[in-house]
Task: inverse folding
């Protein structure tokens, strides 16, 4: 089973899709300079996957 979510669009306005099922089976590292969009990306993933998987956010 796959669970695709759209996290945004690329430079050509094509949808950027990630598979939540695949993500849950592996790990994700989001790395970048300050202001590069890490928090924005995580928010998109949380918003789009909210109906698919239970979420717990820990932000110390
Ligand atoms: N894909 C995106 N499209 C539009 N604006 C974005 C995108 N990613 C980040 N931004 C904007 O860029 C700024 C910095 O992003 P942010 O996620 O706070 O960066 P970081 O957490 O890496 O420091 C914010 O104002 C955010 O809204
Ligand atoms: Mg941030």
Result:
């Amino acid at each position: 089973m796959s669970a695709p979510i759209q996290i945004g669009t690329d430079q050509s306005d094509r949808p950027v899709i990630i598979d939540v099922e695949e993500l849950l089976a592996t790990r994700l590292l989001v790395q970048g300079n300050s202001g590069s969009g890490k928090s924005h990306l995580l928010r998109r993933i949380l918003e789009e996957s909210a109906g698919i998987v239970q979420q717990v956010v820990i932000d110390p």
User: Anything to note?
Assistant: Strands lie at 4-9, 15-19.
